[in-house]
Amino acid sequence: MNLFRKARSRIISYLKRDLSATFMKNFWPIIKIFALIAVALSLLICILFGYSDIPTEELKLKYAQKPSSFASINGIDTHFRDEGNKTDSIPIVLIHGTGASLHTFDEWTNGLKQDFRVVRMDLPGYGLTNPFINHDYSINHYVEFINAFLEKQKIKRCIIGGNSLGGHIAWQYALQHPQKVDRLILIDAGGFPSRSKSTPIAFKLAKIPLIKNLFKYITPKFVVRSSVENVYANPEKISEELIERYFELSLREGNRQAFIDRFKKQKSSSSHEHISKITEETLILWGEKDFLIPVDNAYLFEKKLPNSTLVLFKNLGHVPMEEDAEQSLAPVLNFLAQKN
Question: Which strands, in side-by-side order, build the sheet including 158-163?
């Protein structure tokens, strides 16, 4: 019986060796071909979509012309613009959203600066402002930054507004520093837990392991284009100049890493449970075709904020101030006129 088992074991061993040798002989060339194809594709992707960081000084020549200024805020070189009526004691402070820059409020500023002082900045890790030194992109850290910025500009009280991430920062600022906020403007603001109906591809890539690391070096322009189109209700309103601005500023040295770090910090929060403590007059603006932060959230803000007014835009998306500045600015002007 033992002899039979030994013989069977040897036969199986020989068969395995033979099959293994046959497999390697027949399939090794195929494996090498696939490996070469993978290397070739990787090189092609790097050649077509690999971009080096653009030096800040180079981008300043294009995107930091007058009235742009820079100030050191907690050791961070910060790009900002302070325009309009300098006698206005309660300026309007505008904060952009994820992946954007102060330029997203260009048209609004043009419509406001005749009568009001308008202050806006690039948040750390976006536009031309340096990333956070400690890589902390939590909302509370942004609020600390905004407070330090306003103190640096000697702004003791303001009307603060923001879009998306900027809106989240704005209402958190109002919650933590109520004595410094005169009124509040929320534009498709973040802060409530929600489920996006459609998410920009850049946001998705920034969350995928391995891929997000490649994103620091390989940034196809079509990804930026697709991401911007995702937040517009009507992509036909998007100009090549707009895409170029988003694309070039995303390549500013340090911004791609900051973009990834920002998504690492996104955690569930219960801070929205305290929104009802904000008593300042609040204007809530929302695009009904916002699929990133759906319009249901607009009603949540309206319900929780005791002194709020909600205005919906039927044919606009996530960035109404950029997609249709004239339409979205009209209720803002009415809101501001109520106290003048």
Answer: 68-73, 76-84, 117-121, 92-95, 158-163, 181-187, 282-287, 308-313
- 111-141 tens-digit pLDDT: 999 999 999 999 999 999 999 999 999 999 9
pLDDT beneath 50, residues of the chain: 4, 7, 11-12, 14-15, 19, 23, 38-50, 340
pTM confidence score: 0.82
**What is the Cα–Cα distance from 166 to 175, expressed in whole angstroms?**
14
Cα-trace Rg, the chain: 26
> Phi first, then psi: what are they for 94, rounded to 5°?
-115, 135
The pair of three-digit structure tokens given for residue 224, joined into one six-digit string? 């930026």
Is there a contact between 297 and 193 (Cβ–Cβ < 8 Å)?
no
What share of the chain has pLDDT > 90, as a percent? 66
DSSP string, 221-284: HHHHHHHHHHT-S-GGG--HHHHHHHHHHHTBTTHHHHHHHHHHT-----GGGGGGG--S-EEE
Encoded amino acid at 99, one letter: G
**In the beta sheet, which residues pair with residue 94?**
120, 161
| Residue 117 CA neighbour count, 13 Å, CB half | 14
